[in-house]
Amino acid sequence: MKRTFPALGSLLLCVSLIGCSSEPTEPPAAAAAQPELIDRQVLFGNPERFQGRLSPDGEMMSFRAPLNGVMNLWVAKRGDFASARAITEDTGRGIPSHGWALDSEHVIYSQDIGGDENWHLYSVALTSGDVVDLTPYAGISAQLVAQSSQVPGMVAVGINDRDPKWHDLYLVDLASGERTLLARNDGFASLHVDNSLTVRLATRSEADGGATVLKALGDQWQPLLTIPFEDILLTGILGFDQDNQGFYMVDSRGRDKAALVYVDLESGDSRVLASSERVDVSNVLLHPQTHQPIAYAEDYHRPRYQAVDPQYQASIDQLNAQLSGGASVLAQTQDNRYWTLYTDDSNRSPVYKVFDLESGQLSELFVTQPALEGLNLAKMQGVTIPSRDGLELVSYLTLPSGSDGNGDGRPEQALPMVLLVHGGPWARDVFGYSPMVQWLANRGYAVLQVNFRASTGFGKAFVNAGNGEWGRAMHDDLLDAKAWAVEQGIAKADQVAIMGGSYGGYATLAGLTMTPEAFSCGVSIVGPSNLQTLMASIPPYWESFRQVFARAIGDPQTEQGLALLQERSPLTYVEQIKRPLLIAQGANDPRVKQAESDQIVEAMVAKRIPVTYLLYPDEGHGFARPENNISFVAVAENFLARCNGGYAEPVGQDFAGSSIQILQGAEFLPDPLRTVITSAR
């Protein structure tokens, strides 16, 4: 629902979004020589193709590509783009994700409405073209749990139509959508099936935030192993072995870095199959037929694959020798001959490739954005920054192209910088191409991305160091990264902006409220401002994860926890804001609801503190429609240019087709930007 806020009076301080409605103050100095600005439409428009996959039999390929300007699903013979045909005709936000059914006769995809994350699962029959909603139930959020070559034409799906908190498990027919109950869920965080799609395991969240893994014995459940709270974010079940006698896990119990382990189903005993001293084991590849682990990725600054099974060592060596940047194996054919990879050098368009294990050759499937080829994109570099208490913060620095004249990874002169904070916080920044990073670097900014404590991938001591530290030690890591960049001659101390989405949005609001002079300005995208209301409004199907939030942020069921939530909420310190702030929100966001942005904007208006607030009524937790993304970037670019000294591309058709609403602070937008937005809509 659209909300309006009282207009601010004439007593406003000049700390608005892009200057004040009166004569603006002199903007900060920009970088020395303006580069050729890359069109926002090129960076943030639809890719030519994306999300490439080979069918399990290796005969076909699928991908997302525009159909009448909207990302839809296409299929073709492998490598034959002339035979490509669209198999969906969405006209809204597009199809966000898809994969193949193991029968190679159906494509499966998920979709919500307007970003509400009430996901439905669909199948498309390639022969007939029939599209079937496999989960046609109101208000649900479906989960694809598993499929197996032993049960062709069927998938195991979690559906929470009976109780929104818990997903019952069903066997669903891909052709008809008919479902058969496999297991009722009366309080399990997850249910797991073996290779015959028989329910064998469940995980149950415990009051202390940990979990118990149970095995099915007839109609009963018997505890098999426990996962302490400190391991819960790093430990999970991958799948069963060929004979269904045991299963594979990524497991941090008894060690700091998560290892690949095998667990005997009868005894619960486990043995380590692979581990790393620097990072958690990730992206484990299992053989599609034998289900034995083949390889895994170690990802410190960049990912590198390691063989688990010695017979694949030569293949992994051949693969690594042909990779120059980031890479991730996305799918394997059923005979395991072909692997589909997403490969990612930071300063060029990502490329989907196919690795042939028989020949050892890595060949191109398609380039995602050919329009990027030949552009002067910036190169990302991995850096490690020490925190004030001795942690290693694995980070990524991207400098504007041409600013590093000496080739030492440092600019010839200090630059304005944007500290770009990732969401989660239980996620991480990785090496590779990012349209937002390239956009900022092209506009004259050094861009620093920091894996602060609570980021995943670097062991349980690192991730758990963030518990109870929202707005404190986690924020100190960002401040330490800023100080490092200034000391290294990378950034100008008074020209460092902070920007991010979700947790990154929270970090932006925390930066401008709790450390009001640390940053030149901030851009918060779907950022929570009040941790009490955030905790009170999490989706019901996150119930099993509630204790993790409570332990990390503050428990609203206790007096001490409520006090902590209030103390760490940016809303509590809103009167301290001194720097320009831009807030952007999706109206349908189920994670960080619109009320989170409404509250802090309302408080700023009441205290006569300028702010500009953008709302997208057809978006959720982030902006999926390119028209909306481009319009937001156009506003943010002008904002940053005014308060942080970079460059801004002239506004053209950036608001055509966008649903952008300016609920507050339109008077702070300079002409012609304000006029263009109004006339475009």
Set out the fold topology:
Blueprint: H1 40-44, E1 50-54, E2 60-67, E3 70-77, E4 85-86, E5 97-100, E6 106-111, E7 120-125, E8 131-133, E9 143-146, E10 154-163, E11 166-173, E12 179-183, E13 190-193, E14 199-205, E15 211-217, E16 220-227, E17 236-240, E18 246-251, E19 259-264, E20 270-274, E21 282-286, E22 293-299, E23 303-307, H2 313-321, E24 326-332, E25 338-344, E26 351-356, E27 361-367, E28 380-386, E29 392-398, E30 415-421, H3 435-442, E31 446-450, H4 460-464, H5 473-487, E32 491-501, H6 503-514, E33 522-525, H7 531-536, H8 546-553, H9 559-567, E34 581-586, H10 594-606, E35 612-616, H11 626-644, E36 661-664, H12 673-680
Domain Peptidase S9 prolyl oligopeptidase catalytic: 434-644
GO molecular function: aminopeptidase activity; serine-type endopeptidase activity
Signal peptide: 1-21
